[in-house]
TrEMBL record:
Annotated InterPro entries: Aminotransferase_I/II_large, Class-I_PLP-dep_aminotransf, PyrdxlP-dep_Trfase, PyrdxlP-dep_Trfase_major, PyrdxlP-dep_Trfase_small
Pfam families per UniProt: Aminotran_1_2 (PF00155)
Protein name: PLP-dependent aminotransferase family protein
Source organism of the structure: Acetobacter garciniae
Gene Ontology molecular function: pyridoxal phosphate binding; transaminase activity
Amino acid sequence: MTDRSLIDSRPAGPRFAPWLAKTNPFTSRNIAAASIPGLINLSGGMPDPSLLPAKALSAIAAQAILDYPDDCLGYGPTPGLADLRETVAQRFRARGVPAKAENVLITASGTQALDLLGKIFTTSGDTIACEIPSYAGAFDAWRPRNPTYRHLGLREGRDLAARMAGAAFTYMIPNFSNPTGYLVTLEERQKLLAAARVSGTPLVEDDPYGALFYDGEPLPTLLELASKGQENLDDCPIIHLGSLSKQLAPGMRVGWIIAAPETIRMLSTAKQASDMCSNGLAQRMAVKAMQTGLIEECHPRIIALYRARRNALCAAMARHIGDYVRWEVPAGGMFVWGTLLDTTVDVERLVDLGMQAGVLIGPGEPFDPLGIVPPSIRLSFTYCDEAKLDQGMARLAQTFKAMGVQPGARTYPATSPSLTS
Ligand SMILES: Cc1ncc(COP(=O)(O)O)c(C=O)c1O
């Protein structure tokens, strides 16, 4: 017989915040997948391990601790080491941006920057304007703030100032967006900047992929366009995010935010309660990597390898899954975004069965908090070699077949009504 008094007096246990019930399983599945033997992982935006400059960075790290023990091993200033803030500012000045150290906040890479932006700009229910789909990690970072999202409609030619009006901020990834790989054109960049100025809305430019261009020349960033004719960034509507993750080593967790001094002060206040200060050793390593030209030294190898892999993945897609998916070849970045021709396919099931068949792909859904994007998948080409990319696409084709998807079954409309309405 059950003793009711025991049950009734049992403590209720921890009560977790409601937003935790809404997290997406995508990131944790990616991390868990790394340990499955033989799995071809096309899901995460991971660097090829051969490109990490281990020898150079280990020498830099050892010397940095000896030369700057207090910077590396003691507490540091919340907004970042003065030398790194100045070195980052210098690199932007070389590109025509009138940045000073006071315009730079050092972060634990892009992820902390996104988190801090959510903290300083949003209270529950506020609107964030962005392209849908956009980076799932940004939506994850802002989920505790409970925002609502408004699709900007850049590619559909919407009135951008009207779409930005009243939003806490606008979020854009102009260079080779994650997940779509789309490169925002110069004309679109100018329209975005003009709309930010008209609407008075801060425009966050998230730029982890700017250096990863495989065709043609890089376009000016929104920050560079906004800097034209300006002596300082005091009235700049752009908040620019960058990091070492995609051009040097994501494990260093070094990134930066460039913005007006007032915004940097607010971010620093939010950061104080978040981490007190950034990792000093990683910051000292970043200063050295920038001052010695290590980043530029690594760049040509990264570009050559990723360009070849981008080409190999797109060729393998055409060979194996061209009857099931359509895509645009990205001019840079790490991802190819595929829209399923048959919109009745259950993408979650495709991902699960694909994983059982030995290939991990990313589902489109975590990139779309409004549920307006047709069934889609995201494929990363940076981590696996060309043979694996081909084998991965062959496995995915087998998975489509096993699910009974008809090749060439085109139920995808010419334009998605929900994106144009
Ligand atoms: C668009 C975008 N922003 C930010 C990040 C965060 O990366 P990190 O925290 O390594 O800088 C990523 C990572 O893939 C990304 O794709």
